[in-house]
Write a structure and sequence with these properties.
Blueprint: E1 6-17, E2 21-24, H1 25-28, H2 36-43, E3 47-50, H3 57-71, E4 81-85, H4 96-104, E5 110-114, H5 120-134, E6 139-146, H6 157-160, E7 166-177, E8 184-192, E9 200-202, E10 215-217, H7 219-241, E11 250-253, H8 258-267, H9 279-282, H10 289-299, E12 308-315, E13 319-326
Parallel strand pairs: 4-5, 4-6, 11-12
Antiparallel strand pairs: 1-7, 2-3, 6-7, 8-13, 9-10, 12-13
Helix pairs in contact: 3-4, 7-8
The structure holds oxa(dethia)-CoA (UT7).
Length: 327
């Protein structure tokens, strides 16, 4: 008897966009009481990109999306689903995804935003994958785009040195195959625990202060939870597929802190060479960091067809998650 075909969401293109202005650590040291040595030693960050007044979450997202569609050899009109992860939308509403949809010129499909802060891209990926596998859409743009510079307290050295702006995008296409080793998203796991809201949040919003607010973080506590939660969720995804960490070709983590990347890799016995690192160049770009790092490693030829790639992230909420993809 022949096997029933499995429908999977296949990664067919990636793209990225960064603001024009690069801000190295030495420039940060002119704004607040910090130093290149402290930032590099505690975080691994050497540089970040900061959006100018004409660069917005939607403009960065649109640029990244165009690249991803081009890499997929598709036209914008082929896209019938846009899921955009952001904590820094252009406006309170409409969803930034609808602005991107209009800019791209692909009207009539589905377009909405997902808010899960630094885990936003993993959440958006999970939603898009479910919608593609259920048949609600055929080709999805999944975007992570942020302008965190707009919600930073530029007088708080404990947070303003850590974040940057940028966008990353991927195109997923629903394909059916009877081959169990066919490419596509193999497994995903998402979690949230609202008990930790106050460790990482923005002190404003339309329904409370009526202002946008600024980011506040108890860094040490977030760090501690991140290492534990990420190692746990990576194990959960591996267990779901019957694979082990030795089977993974690349880990593309959320880029929050080099020490979190190192500690998580150690916990799972993953050699550091398998971890894609962009934190030195981009700093923490929240929902954009995973697709920015993914695009970097696809374009420089490290990530190749047939390989197994694990994406993971943890952020405000807390929210966290991981997804295993065969390229
Ligand atoms: O993306 C969402 C998830 N976010 C994260 O995963 C972030 C997780 N947390 C972290 O990455 C780290 O906790 C930080 C990088 C935020 C901080 O590193 P830490 O090793 O936990 O440092 P700390 O907060 O304990 O601060 C150590 C010292 C303090 O001075 P005292 O109290 O020991 O005198 C801080 O005031 O470093 C001081 N400090 C700084 N010094 C120079 C804090 N920020 C700075 C700074 N420059 N920018």
């Amino acid at each position: 008897m022949s096997q029933a075909p499995i429908r999977r969401s296949v990664l067919v293109g990636t793209g990225a966009a960064l603001p024009r202005r690069a801000v190295p650590n030495d420039e940060m040291a002119k704004m607040v009481d910090t130093s290149d040595e402290w930032i590099v030693a505690r975080t691994g960050i050497r540089n970040r990109y900061i959006a100018g007044p004409d660069e917005t979450t939607s403009s960065l997202a649109t640029a990244a999306a165009r690249q991803a569609i081009e890499a997929a050899k598709l036209n914008p009109t082929d896209i019938d689903l846009i899921v955009l992860a952001t904590a820094t939308p252009d406006q309170t509403f409409p969803a930034t995804a609808t602005i991107v949809q209009h800019e791209l010129g692909c009207h009539g499909g589905i377009a909405f935003d997902v808010a899960a802060v630094c885990s936003g891209f993993l959440y958006a990926l999970g939603v898009a994958d479910s919608m593609l596998r259920s048949g609600m859409a055929r080709r999805a743009l999944v975007i992570g785009s942020e302008t965190f510079s707009r919600i930073l307290d530029w007088e708080d050295r404990t947070t303003c040195v850590l974040f940057g702006d940028g966008a990353g995008a991927i195109v997923l296409e629903a394909r059916e195959s009877t081959d169990p080793d066919a490419p596509g998203i193999l497994a995903s796991k998402l979690h949230a625990d609202g008990a930790h809201n106050q460790l990482l949040y923005v002190d404003g919003g339309p329904s409370t202060t009526g202002t946008v607010g600024k980011l506040r973080m108890t860094g040490k506590e977030v760090f501690r939870h991140a290492v534990t939660n990420l190692a746990d969720v990576l194990r959960e995804v591996l267990d779901q597929t019957g694979l082990t960490s030795a089977d993974i070709d690349w880990v593309v983590p959320h880029q929050a802190n080099q020490r979190i990347l190192d500690a998580t890799a150690r916990k799972l016995n993953l050699p550091a060479e398998k971890v894609v690192v962009t934190i030195d160049r981009h700093a923490n770009t929240s929902a954009a960091s995973v697709p920015l790092a993914l695009d970097t490693a696809v374009r420089d030829g490290r990530i190749k067809p047939g390989q197994l790639v694990m994406l993971e992230a943890m952020g405000g909420g807390f929210t966290w998650g991981a997804s295993l993809i065969r390229i």
